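This follows on from our talk about sequence and fold. Go ahead and set the record down below:
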Amino acid sequence: MSGPLFHLFSSAPEPVAPFSHAVEADGWVQLTGQMPTDPDDDAKPLPDGIDAQTRRVMDNLGLVLAELGLGLEHVTSARAYLVNFERDYAAMNEAYASYFPADRRPARTCVGVTALARGALVEIDMIAKRP
């Protein structure tokens, strides 16, 4: 068993707090929850609405996975956090589902929360497994 590897990538969005983009141990990769921040301009306003924010979050997670030599097909589990659960759940699900084939969706939990960093509407974290 090897010790954990802590990954921080310049191509991914600047962390909003003191954390690594991903931590890897024994082929398992835990991706920190991504915000809908622009990876090229941290000061840019967040996208408007849950659809655009969900897509930016998923794209940001894809950037981290790509840096690790992985893709969404390696994701085994995800957790989504929504500030306006009842209002945004269906639209977030529609955007999220578009990133996965219907027969290869990771296990997932979705939780309503009172607030997220930067005033975001959604945050998603993931666990992936190296082949």
